[in-house]
Every structure is written in C-alpha cells, then in structure tokens.
Amino acid sequence: MFVSTSLRAISRNAPLTARRAFHASSARMVHFLDATPETFKAAVANKEKVVLVDFYADWCGPCKMISPILKRLTDDPKVKTGSGKALDLVTVDTDKHTALAQEYQISSLPTVIAFEDGKPVSKFIGAMPEGSVRNFLGTL
C-alpha cells in the first residue's frame, strides 16, 4: 500500500508535460504524446510503420473517448494495418499547435489521420467504437 500511495503522489506532483511525455518500447510501438510540430514531422516520416495522428483538444469529449482506444490498439502487437505494417501513435493538441491543425485542415475534433511514408493516406473524424477503428486500420 505504501508503494502505490507514494507512486500516486509522485505522479500527481509531476508536471503535466512529464505525464504526457514521449515513451516507447523498442519491440513494438512508439507514442509521441502531445507532439510538437518538429516531433510530428519526424514521427510521420517513418517509412516502416503507419503513423496514426490524433488531433485533439483537452476540452473535447469525443477526443477523450477515442484516445484510449488508439493507445490500446497501438500498444497491441497483434494489431496491424491491412498491409501488415505496425502502428505508431502521435497526438497533437490543436489548441497548442494551431498552425499544424490549419496545415492539415482540421475543422472537427477528434480527427485521426493515418500517415504512410510521410504522407496522409486516410482519415476519420469523430469518436468511433474500437471495432470501427479496427476496420479503419484494416483498410490501410
């Protein structure tokens, strides 16, 4: 009990950026959470994986519904695209990075764009159930 309480205290006292910071597992996925424009451009340039970019805002209710689904799917080594490629996840806060949102013509939230070889190849808008997201991934 003492360990979990102290871990919660450390987590609660950590700055927001530290809790949303980049984390990775070399064996499977890479998540770039709350990406800057520079991080975004480097991440989507990946030629070996499909990169899902979740354009969101903290105040957006549907964004809070789709984000955990995207994280869960990109964490699962069994989930791949229709072409068999693995997935990475990038999240972009549209309130912080308005120029990036404008560049990709984000007018509704959440918007998820799939990038392959640095180019957008497909997208969906709005929250969807996990099964629908899996179907979307199967089309890539």
UniProtKB/TrEMBL annotation:
GO terms for molecular function: protein-disulfide reductase activity. Residues 8-140 form the Thioredoxin domain. GO terms for cellular component: cytoplasm. Keywords: Disulfide bond, Electron transport, Redox-active center, Transport. Gene3D superfamilies: Glutaredoxin (3.40.30.10). It holds the Pfam family Thioredoxin. InterPro entries: Thioredoxin, Thioredoxin-like_sf, Thioredoxin_CS, Thioredoxin_domain. The keyword Transport applies. NCBIfam families: thioredoxin. This is Thioredoxin domain-containing protein. It comes from Phanerochaete carnosa (strain HHB-10118-sp) (White-rot fungus).
